[in-house]
Design goal:
With 271 residues, the protein is of the alpha/beta class. It has 10 helices and 7 strands.
Length: 271
């Protein structure tokens, strides 16, 4: 079976589904992680917000190249093939920048050239900027052209509301595939005791499916997350705390969880 996980950033699929992905590849499934916001920043100075994040991550001007290297190491742990799209992370995106030179609905952002669209934390967890509405269709076009018809496609529920997660889900849903969904970790960890806050993001008529992971899978999950070493400080003080947090989240969720179309007939192959 072929699975494609849509990852908004260069760590989201590993964070949210690393243990399950490892189990799938160990069973012989073909798994790929397609990272949507994996492009280099545009030329020019960073926003103060992006520069602050670079300092916290302890990376220099080649931050995104460094993160792609980390992702390659993470994908090796999980035995998956990566694919990188050219769209930059929202912290780098500015009005007037074009990320695809062809296709319909080219963004008409030229009235505010150079203005950073997501200049702070409040912006990246808010709505998609109106000037980026065309990006949804552009990304949907690329996914529609690229996604193989025989693959199970898994995208984020958008727990936490990050704009790049919203963009990924909206574009994937426009491709008109029977999508599966995952809860965005670690944002989902805040809602484990309020499961209705996660369930309300699942599509109508979807079914929650829970899968047991082996201890080696949970350990591989931790190694895959640890490979994204520049990002660890965003959520945890050290690797030991991170590994413990993954284990606790897995227990609190009752297993690894995906949401599938109600009429899916492949769940038995995951048991």
């Amino acid at each position: 079976m072929k699975w494609i996980y849509l990852s908004p950033h260069l760590d989201d699929a590993a964070l949210s589904c690393g243990g399950l992905i490892w189990e799938q590849t160990q069973r012989g499934d073909q798994v790929e992680i397609w990272t949507i916001c994996a492009g280099d920043p545009p030329m020019g100075e960073l926003s103060p917000f992006a520069a602050e994040l670079h300092r916290r991550w302890q990376v220099g001007v080649e931050a995104v190249a460094r993160r792609r290297e980390e992702d390659l190491a993470s994908c090796q742990v999980l035995s998956v093939a990566p694919r990188y799209f050219p769209l930059p992370d929202c912290i780098y995106r500015r009005a007037g920048d074009a990320y695809w030179q062809s296709g319909r609905n080219t963004p008409q952002n030229i009235e505010l050239p150079g203005v950073f669209l997501y200049p702070d934390y409040q912006a990246i967890f808010g709505p998609i900027h109106p000037l980026e509405s065309a990006l949804i269709e552009q990304l949907a076009d690329r996914l529609g052209e690229s996604l193989p018809s025989d693959a199970v496609v898994v995208c984020p529920l958008t727990v936490g509301g990050h704009v790049d997660h919203q963009l990924t889900r909206l574009a994937a849903e426009r491709v008109q595939r029977n999508l599966w969904y995952y809860a965005d970790y670690p944002y989902a960890d805040d809602f484990v005791q309020q499961p209705e806050q996660i369930e309300r993001l699942s599509p109508a008529h979807s079914v929650r499916r829970t899968f047991r992971l082996s201890q080696p899978a949970i350990q591989a999950w931790g190694r895959a997350v640890a490979a994204h070493r520049s990002q660890i400080s965003t959520f945890w003080p050290d690797l030991e705390t991170m590994q413990a947090a993954l284990q606790e989240y897995y227990v609190r969720m009752g297993g690894a969880v995906l949401w599938s179309p109600a009429d899916s007939n492949i769940e038995d192959k995951l048991a």
